[in-house]
Amino acid sequence: MTMDPGLDALKSRVTAASLGPEARETGTVTEIADGLAHVSGLPGARLGEVLEFTGGARGFVLNLDETTLQAAFLDATAGIEAGSTVTRTGELVSVPVGDGLFGRVVDPLGRVLDDLGPLAASEMAEVERPAPSIIARDFVSEPVETGVLVVDALFAVGRGQRELIIGERGTGKTSIAVDAILNQKDSDIVCIYVSIGQRATAVRRVIEAVRQKGAFDRTIFVVAPATSQPGLRWLAPFAATSMAETIRDRGGHALIVYDDLTKHAAVHRELALLSRQPPGREAYPGDIFYLHARLLERSAKLSKAMGGGSLTALPIAEIEAGNLSAYIPTNLISISDGQIVTSATLFAGNQRPAVDVGLSVSRVGGKAQPRALKAVAGRLRLDYAQYLEMKMFSRFGGFGDAAMKKRLARGARIGALLAQDRYSPLSTAVQVALLAALADGVLDPVAIDQFPALKAALVPLIAAEPQLAGLNVAPEVDAATRKAATDCVRTAIAKLPALPEAPTP
Ligand SMILES: Nc1ncnc2c1ncn2[C@@H]1O[C@H](COP(=O)(O)OP(=O)(O)OP(=O)(O)O)[C@@H](O)[C@H]1O
Ligand SMILES: [Mg+2]
């Protein structure tokens, strides 16, 4: 008996180890296509199992039929050709999870992409895990404050919700999601940004924004660039969800941004066609709906018995020519709990964020919206929608009474209020103050051009007002609080430099 418990453990492992022959199933590559291998002779292989190819490259089983299987590569495929051998590892694709990933940039297998050295993560989790059962879930009831006024006021997102951000190319989809990440700087929500098939510069921009203005050390970046193996791009959202679930299952809160699922659908189609699966509508395989449904079902608010954690998802999708009713967009819309639609027309007209308030909706977030915000945002959507309609008619010229002019002026102010630079999220207290001021007519004398300066002046005033602290969790807003908020707005207005010309109508 030695004194060293480590040595004892080692000795017992050596004695227990079997030194006999080991059974390993070996197959053969029959065909190789872009990022995908057809393999025969591995009858025991399971879906999602990791395979090892000649030279050490790995892949995972994507499809199975009676005699062959298709595996997507996870590494470079140099040296692999028809006739190469393949062995089973018996393991399903797994990724590192845990706090060691915070503040790191990794690929979908958890391999480090930044220069901060090896990961401190020790646990591993399979990338495909079942979604929480109905019993394990609770209703969405607490807010995720995105800091984007138009979203928080009109399309509130709750913890555990799946809110799609959908719109044409370059209409500010990523910016809205990144703002939501930046706004978690002082919250208890951990953010995971998953980049699927994006240009490296676009990913870089997001990482830098979070580094400068967000809680970088509580954010995880999972990156599968456009140049990576299709198998890696395919895995990215699933792998990142496993990392996020670990936070949820420990009773914590996580927010995951999938940027974007249109590109993920495209890589799924690419791999399916290479696997010779029968193509369906728009050449997507029949399981494309199930693919994203099983992914997004993993976002949930857990019941108290399960720890009460949550995983909120902001999947992003791209549409062409404003067509929301194409195959993938309709699928994603039906899987999620609402959508924020960005409009190319609004974007071109300089309304940013270019959120189309008519087409956007949040199906469960209203119940989670902070009370204070709900109290002042009540009529906003209707007033704004009416204004947009009236504006169209008033273009035809000269008619309109004083009441209509007043409504137009108020509507223009709503538009100016909802406009917001990216990377400058607003706290709930600032949002409440602005909306209360709008409702009370305090903003009527402010010229449209002065709105950005007004918001900038308001932020420190609100932060310094003790009566407004905790407004985001307050059960109600009493008259005194509301007055304190609008008084801050009045003070900010008084500080504004006068504009040379008369206020625009
Ligand atoms: N709130 C905003 N304020 C000012 N500019 C904005 C705002 N949102 C977006 N932009 C501008 O629009 C550009 C495109 O935004 P973003 O990258 O978020 O759009 P996207 O829809 O994600 O684009 P893509 O389809 O290329 O992914 C940005 O580079 C930025 O200059
Ligand atoms: Mg984008």
Feature tags:
505 residues; alpha/beta; Elongation Factor Tu (Ef-tu), domain 3; Rossmann fold; Lysin; 3 domains; 6-stranded antiparallel β-barrel; binds adenosine-5'-triphosphate; binds magnesium ion
Protein model, in words:
The protein is α/β, with parallel strands linked by helices and 505 residues long. The chain has three domains: 23-92, Elongation Factor Tu (Ef-tu), domain 3, CATH 2.40.30; 96-369, Rossmann fold (3-Layer(aba) Sandwich); 375-495, Up-down Bundle (Lysin). Helix content is 36%, strand content 19%. The chain has 15 helices and 18 strands. It has helices spanning 5-16, 149-154, 173-182, 200-213, 230-249, 261-274, 288-296, 327-335, 344-348, 371-377, 380-394, 402-418, 428-439, 451-463, 479-495; strands spanning 26-33, 36-40, 49-53, 58-64, 68-73, 85-92, 94-97, 105-106, 123-126, 143-144, 157-158, 164-167, 189-196, 219-224, 253-259, 310-318, 338-342, 361-362. The strands form four sheets. Strands 8-14-13-15-16-12-17-18 form an eight-stranded mixed sheet, with helices on both faces. Strands 1-2-5-4-3-6 form a six-stranded antiparallel beta barrel. It has a two-stranded antiparallel sheet with strand order 7-9. Strand 4 (58-64) and strand 5 (68-73) form a beta hairpin. The protein binds adenosine-5'-triphosphate and magnesium ion.
Write the layout of secondary structure elements.
Layout: H1 5-16, E1 26-33, E2 36-40, E3 49-53, E4 58-64, E5 68-73, E6 85-92, E7 94-97, E8 105-106, E9 123-126, E10 143-144, H2 149-154, E11 157-158, E12 164-167, H3 173-182, E13 189-196, H4 200-213, E14 219-224, H5 230-249, E15 253-259, H6 261-274, H7 288-296, E16 310-318, H8 327-335, E17 338-342, H9 344-348, E18 361-362, H10 371-377, H11 380-394, H12 402-418, H13 428-439, H14 451-463, H15 479-495
Parallel strand pairs: 8-14, 12-16, 12-17, 13-14, 13-15, 15-16
Antiparallel strand pairs: 1-2, 1-6, 2-5, 3-4, 3-6, 4-5, 7-9, 10-11, 17-18
Helix pairs in contact: 3-4, 5-6, 7-8, 10-13, 11-12, 13-14, 13-15, 14-15
